[in-house]
Design goal:
mainly alpha, 10 helices
């Protein structure tokens, strides 16, 4: 939930064009934190003791609160969704209303419904990969050290690849190719990955697939997905996004787990999972392409409205 609020605030502070340039670089902070946090804990656990690490964590949370307060004082950029308004005033106004308005907004907007479907399929695919990893690593035997080493290897490759993508690739991709292509990259990665697993079926293929999937998800797709909320109204930016990033994502986890479990009970292996996942990835890719086009249309429409009212 805190991550959702952070990205909602980012979408509120920056315009569409600014988000294309900056969201990849902003996401670098999260990746560096994911690397720095475990390292700092490993360095301080012995001299300070585990209970004292809670105070260290609390101190970093206070720093995060200070940064969030400073961000809320920034002048809000003009947004495509805030048509004809005064962004510098609307950015600090209380939204009001009910949290249920986010649910109603989603079902009133084809654009937000498409974001829902995109996030739902994302969660389903991530769950498929998670359970596939558990099964393949469990097949290695009961050696706990081997399992730990495999999981650590996947995490290390993922973090390094994510950092490189966020710092070097994402901003250029979004500026030059737009949201359509960047949102379609992860579905293409999923389709190719499941095909590769069905053909090869080795642990090496799984490590390469999961590391690539998670790196593209965090390094490219996540910043691109967050730019989608720069072209909606401020109320939708907070309320509808909260519904999508919490309820819809967790619903995708449940759907993915139940589907994978059903295939397992039917005695079907990786080939059957790939036969289900690859067509789903094609639908996912089409959603990404449509969302990018819809985002551009909303931005152009808002620009025309603002041009008429000024």
């Amino acid at each position: 939930f805190a991550t959702m609020l952070f990205w909602a605030l980012m979408a509120d502070r920056f315009s569409l064009e600014q988000s294309k340039r900056l969201f990849g670089a902003i996401a670098v902070g999260g990746t560096l934190g994911a690397i720095f946090g475990p390292w700092l804990a490993s360095m301080l656990a012995r001299p300070l003791g585990t209970p004292a690490l809670l105070l260290v964590a609390a101190a970093f949370l206070v720093l995060a609160l200070g940064a969030a307060w400073w961000l809320t004082r920034l002048r809000t950029a003009p947004h495509a969704g805030d048509r004809g308004g005064a962004p510098e005033l609307a950015g600090h106004a209380v939204i009001g209303g009910s949290a249920w308005e986010g649910l109603r907004a989603v079902f009133r907007s084809p654009y937000l419904l498409a974001i829902c479907a995109y996030v739902l399929i994302l969660a389903v695919m991530a769950t498929f990969i998670y359970f596939t990893r558990l099964q393949m690593v469990a097949a290695l035997g009961t050696n706990l050290d081997m399992r730990t080493a495999t999981f650590a290897r996947i995490d290390m490759i993922t973090q390094v690849a994510t950092l490189v993508l966020q710092a070097v690739v994402t901003g250029h991709l979004m500026k030059r190719l737009g949201a359509s292509v960047t949102l379609a990259l992860l579905p293409v990665t999923a389709a190719l990955g499941f095909l590769g697993l069905a053909i090869v079926g080795s642990l090496v293929a799984l490590v390469a697939f999961e590391a690539t999937f998670r790196a593209v998800q965090r390094g490219i797709m996540r910043p691109a997905r967050e730019t989608l909320f720069t072209t909606v109204s401020r109320a939708e930016r907070y309320k509808a996004k909260a519904f999508i990033d919490t309820f819809v994502y967790r619903a995708g986890d449940v759907v993915g787990a139940q589907t994978e479990g059903m295939l397992g009970r039917l005695g079907m292996g990786l080939a059957a999972l790939a036969a289900f996942a690859v067509p789903l990835a094609m639908v996912w890719m089409a959603l990404g392409l449509w969302l990018g086009a819809a985002q551009r249309a909303q931005a152009r429409g808002a620009g025309q409205v603002q041009g008429v009212t000024t």
